[in-house]
Q: What sequence folds into this?
């Protein structure tokens, strides 16, 4: 047993506890410093992760915990996401009231869960990690206790989440029953012989359902718009980026490391679900006027694009997912940071809140525009290159299975539809006539920094993608793929 | 990039001729835009140097016995493989291009110098000289091009620079319209030209250099197959546009909106001559056995040259008729130019493979001198009368503007074809050719000659002599030296170009057999009367007839007597036979129909079904789907479970 494998998780949890303790002695006016300090500490930890080697995979705790390229990639990803979300939280402090420290601590606990998920190599660890994420999010979603919508969102997330956890744990039980083990390593060795056992398949499908809930895949997407809308904006952002990515790392590990022999037969299912998810998210976003709901539907659509990479069942496809998620991280956090800043001034979450933003703050207008353009997949931004890699991975499989051509076609139709509502946001920013307030928007320097980082990230990944493409390709080597 | 060891002398000196004006464009646009005088000087120096180098080339290469020379070639596009293409930039130097080089740079230099005086007070003088140099560069490119692609590029550059120059005073609506009209009409012809080039390209697997094409057609006359005549006529389309032949002649008179030196350079001496030059350059294309595709079998029995000859003849006669009733001095000269270009094209059409298009080129050269002279003289008059262009407001200029008067008279006599001035010889060579080939066209040529003498002397009697017809005319005074010097130089050219051996030079390249008749000049003066006496006498008679009528009608006339005598006919002539109105009507009709059809298609098919249909369908679908999100938790949980059931069914069915 090697306790040092868990170093980062332990640090993060310790940091969370430290924040809770420090809260007792910190006067309310200075609580925001706690958030910022934890962001700094996370940044230092992020730097430390570069000391770890990506080539060797380390198995500890009876092979139930793994540190390999994939795990490290996602740990870094979650670090970046958490840092940006904490910075956003600091800017959002007024709305969260006195509970800022708790909020930061919960964010850190969720981060620990996500990092654990990245390294999960055992169904028990998988379940614990997921529950750690989900349970902290129950609180984070309903954090604005005086706000009805926030509470409603919390309840909905709790109940649907509990339902999916039920399916998940049931599925784990069935898998254990069929295979006699919960260890990924063990099941991976047996999976070829287990592939035609209905009980095993049923168990896996139920686990797939549980993960599908996390990544907001059709038909388990139903909670997304309501929860995204009701949650405090930093929560929405973390949910959309972190929680979704945690779902994907587990999905990748499960389908492409543990049971690739089974998943090979599921390509049709994955393709159908990917296509439906893309269409559902994009179509529903069209008439949407609420900004956070709009991004909720957009998040469903993006889950669909990412699922295409899973369906391809190739290293290129999985590497494309990693790349896409990284671009999505900067893009979405930029959008949510802008929304958080605007929502501090107004209660209206409608798209009309953006009217006149160009006059109120050209910087915010530029950041939001860049984010929308990147989400729409226009070069030279990160969103374009991610979509390009995903489509390339899918089209490469087209020769073997013509259905992939259809999937690519649906994805392109989805992108075309999405242009409409993403550019609707840009139109509201620059050309909307009914701007009520035109007073300049104050932007905290923390938020300004976060936005600059996000914009730089979008542009860097879009213009100089090589470095990250190599990293992603390196990271997926631990999966059992062609 | 350039290997100086492999440069050839003197052939590669031609690059200097070509690039000097371009350098002037660069310097005048980038550095000296604010200093109008300096820009003008740079431009003038460039073209004069070009002229001097051209003279040097003419002497050096003319002294060699080789029929032609070529400069070093620069590879421009080269694609290897079975469908490979190789296009090089190379300058062709044969007597034809050398002679044309002299005309373009020589007349060009005179006009550049004249412009310095004419445009003296214009605020856009720098721009003017930049455009003028650009034009010179483009025109030299056409002259020196050794392949179709290069020629086409410079052909278009000439179009652009003439657009810039015609529309030089673009703040005037009429000038801007005229520039557009010239450009668009030229584009129509150029469209045919490039189709012809592509046709030849495909028929000969990429042989586009004139020499290679000539050699191939000499050994395989049937290389172009049944498309020989079509290809020839498509190429001719380019000349129809640029040389303003019927039915694309309408742009040239309007182009007179440009500054007068521009009219002289572009629309008399060089650009419009480019079409005729091009026809002479590719004359070998027209001498292959005539063949038509099946769909055009009714043309059997005619050759492409017949079509060219008749279009030239029609243009010559038509333009001469119109010129008779114009009152704007520049328009009279413009229609006269059209008419003379028609003459040249007719001469090309009548030429035989054996004799080559010498008469056309001969007339081109002499015409360049006297028509440039006439335009510059007209410009001198116009400037002296404060931009008055109506000939009925001029008169009595003999005493006040002696140099302009005498040089203009020389130009008039040369244009009418009075021996021993240059026009007589070139016109006579065309008439003699027509007489030997086609009597109908000979009569057309004679009629045109009568009309030419008539309208030119009408212009002379009304505008130059007699009493002053306006206040401005009585206060006119001679133009400055910088403007009269070019007039004198061009007058000298107009007098002598006929018998000093232009024809001999031309024969050297255009005649395939070796029967050169190099006569000493004193014998050359009277040569036409011994060579083809009938044509020479008829031509002389035509001049005398035209002069007599003009003398009778217009000597000391106060108003134009013709409208009363001819009535409707005169009105039709004055209105240019309503060509513009007919085109306007036809284009408007076609345009209306096409635009309505396009509008309908766009409104209903594209915007209606394709765009709005797709978008509202998607929108509706999105709205319907949104109804799933009821917000009701029980429904959500139910849908979740239904989803699970569906996924399980999908895999485990």
A:
């Amino acid at each position: 047993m090697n306790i040092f494998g868990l170093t980062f998780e332990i640090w993060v949890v310790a940091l969370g506890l430290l924040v809770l303790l420090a809260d007792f002695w910190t006067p309310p006016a200075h609580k925001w410093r706690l958030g910022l300090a934890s962001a700094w500490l996370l940044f230092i930890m992020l730097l430390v992760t570069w000391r770890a080697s990506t080539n060797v995979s380390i198995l500890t705790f009876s092979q139930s915990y793994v540190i390999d390229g994939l795990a490290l990639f996602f740990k870094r990803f979650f670090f970046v996401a958490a840092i940006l979300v904490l910075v956003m939280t600091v800017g959002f402090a007024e709305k969260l009231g006195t509970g800022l420290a708790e909020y930061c601590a919960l964010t850190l606990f969720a981060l620990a869960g996500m990092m654990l998920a990245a390294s999960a190599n055992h169904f028990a660890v998988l379940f614990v990690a997921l529950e750690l994420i989900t349970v902290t999010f129950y609180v984070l979603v309903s954090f604005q206790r005086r706000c009805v919508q926030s509470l409603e969102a919390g309840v909905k997330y709790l109940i649907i989440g509990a339902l999916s956890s039920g399916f998940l744990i049931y599925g784990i039980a069935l898998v254990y029953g069929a295979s006699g083990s919960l260890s990924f390593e063990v099941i991976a060795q047996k999976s070829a012989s287990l592939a035609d056992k209905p009980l095993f398949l049923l168990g896996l499908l139920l686990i797939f359902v549980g993960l599908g809930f996390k990544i907001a895949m059709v038909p388990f997407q139903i909670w997304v718009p309501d929860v995204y809308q009701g949650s405090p904006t930093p929560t929405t952002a973390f949910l959309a980026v972190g929680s979704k990515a945690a779902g994907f790392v587990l999905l990748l590990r499960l389908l492409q490391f543990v049971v690739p022999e089974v998943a090979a037969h599921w390509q049709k299912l994955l393709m159908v679900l990917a296509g439906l998810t893309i269409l559902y998210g994009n179509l529903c976003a069209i008439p949407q006027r609420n900004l956070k709901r709009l991004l909720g539907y957009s998040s469903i659509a993006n889950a669909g694009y990412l699922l295409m990479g899973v369906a391809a069942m190739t290293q290129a496809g999985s590497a494309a997912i990693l790349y896409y998620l990284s671009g999505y991280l900067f893009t979405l956090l930029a959008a949510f940071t802008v929304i958080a800043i605007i929502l501090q001034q107004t209660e209206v979450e409608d798209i009309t809140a953006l009217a006149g933003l160009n006059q109120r703050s050209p910087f915010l207008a530029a950041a939001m525009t860049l984010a929308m353009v990147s989400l729409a997949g226009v070069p030279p931004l990160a969103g374009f290159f991610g979509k390009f890699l995903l489509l390339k991975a899918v089209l490469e499989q087209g020769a073997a299975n013509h259905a992939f051509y259809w999937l690519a076609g649906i994805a392109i139709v989805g992108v075309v539809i999405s242009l409409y509502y993403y550019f609707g946001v840009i139109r509201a920013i620059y050309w909307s006539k009914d701007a009520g307030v035109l007073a300049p928007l104050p932007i905290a320097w923390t938020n300004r920094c976060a936005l600059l980082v996000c914009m730089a990230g979008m542009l860097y990944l879009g213009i100089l993608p090589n470095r990250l493409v190599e990293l992603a390709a390196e990271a997926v080597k631990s999966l059992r793929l062609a | 990039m350039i290997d100086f060891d492999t440069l050839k002398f003197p052939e590669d000196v031609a690059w200097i001729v070509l690039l000097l004006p371009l350098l002037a464009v660069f310097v005048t646009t980038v550095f000296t835009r604010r200093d109008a005088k300096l820009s003008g000087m740079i431009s003038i120096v460039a073209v004069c140097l070009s002229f001097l180098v051209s003279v040097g080339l003419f002497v050096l290469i003319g002294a060699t016995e080789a029929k032609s020379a070529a400069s070093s070639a620069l590879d421009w596009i080269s694609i290897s493989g079975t469908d490979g293409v190789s296009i090089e930039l190379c300058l062709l130097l044969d007597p034809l291009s050398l002679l044309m080089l002299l005309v373009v740079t020589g007349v060009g230099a005179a006009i550049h110098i004249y412009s310095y005086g004419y445009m003296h007070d214009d605020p856009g003088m720098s721009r003017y000289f930049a455009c003028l140099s650009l034009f010179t560069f483009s025109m030299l490119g056409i002259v020196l091009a050794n392949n179709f692609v290069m020629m086409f590029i410079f052909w278009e550059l000439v179009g652009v620079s003439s657009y810039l120059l015609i529309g030089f005073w673009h703040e005037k609506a009429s000038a801007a319209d005229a520039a557009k009209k010239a450009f668009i009409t030229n584009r129509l012809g150029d469209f045919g030209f490039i189709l012809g080039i592509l046709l030849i390209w495909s028929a000969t697997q990429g042989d586009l250099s004139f020499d290679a094409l000539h050699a191939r057609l000499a050994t395989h006359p049937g290389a172009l197959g049944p498309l020989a005549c079509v290809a020839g006529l498509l190429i001719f389309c380019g000349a129809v546009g640029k040389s303003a032949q019927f039915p694309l002649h309408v742009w040239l008179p309007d182009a007179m909106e440009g500054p007068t030196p521009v009219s002289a350079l572009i629309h008399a001496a060089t650009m419009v001559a480019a079409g005729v030059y091009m026809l002479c350059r590719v004359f070998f294309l027209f001498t292959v056995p005539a063949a038509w595709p099946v769909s055009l079998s009714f043309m059997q029995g005619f050759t492409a040259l017949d079509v060219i000859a008749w279009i030239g003849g029609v243009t010559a006669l038509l333009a001469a008729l119109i010129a008779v009733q114009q009152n704007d001095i520049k328009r009279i000269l413009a229609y006269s130019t059209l008419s003379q270009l028609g003459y040249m094209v007719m001469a090309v059409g009548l030429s035989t493979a054996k004799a080559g298009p010498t008469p056309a080129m001969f007339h081109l050269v002499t015409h360049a001198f006297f028509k440039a002279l006439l335009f510059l003289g007209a410009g001198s008059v116009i400037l002296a009368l404060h931009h008055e262009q109506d000939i009925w407001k001029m008169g009595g200029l003999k005493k006040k503007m002696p140099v302009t008067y005498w040089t203009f008279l020389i130009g008039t006599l040369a244009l009418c074809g009075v021996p021993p001035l240059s026009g007589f010889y070139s016109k006579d060579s065309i008439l003699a050719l027509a007489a030997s080939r086609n009597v109908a066209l000979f009569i057309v040529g004679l009629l045109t000659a009568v009309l030419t003498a008539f309208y030119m002397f009408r212009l002379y009697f009304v505008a130059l002599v007699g009493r002053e017809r306006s206040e401005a005319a009585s206060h006119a005074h001679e133009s400055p030296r910088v403007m009269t010097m070019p007039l004198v130089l061009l007058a000298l050219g107009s007098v002598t170009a006929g018998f000093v051996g232009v024809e001999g030079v031309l024969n050297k390249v255009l005649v395939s057999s070796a029967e050169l008749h190099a006569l000493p000049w004193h014998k050359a003066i009277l040569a036409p009367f011994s060579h083809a006496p009938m044509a020479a006498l008829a031509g002389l008679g035509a001049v005398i007839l035209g002069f007599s009528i003009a003398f009778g009608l217009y000597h000391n006339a106060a108003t134009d007597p013709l409208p009363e005598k001819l009535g409707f006919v005169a009105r039709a002539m004055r209105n240019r036979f309503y060509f513009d109105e007919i085109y306007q009507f036809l284009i408007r009709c076609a345009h209306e129909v096409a635009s309505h059809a396009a509008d309908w298609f766009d409104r209903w098919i594209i915007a209606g079904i394709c765009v709005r249909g797709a978008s509202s369908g998607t929108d509706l679908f999105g709205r319907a789907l949104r109804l799933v999100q009821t917000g009701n938790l029980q429904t959500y949980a139910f849908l979740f479970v239904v989803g699970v059931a569906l996924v399980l069914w999908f895999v485990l069915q």
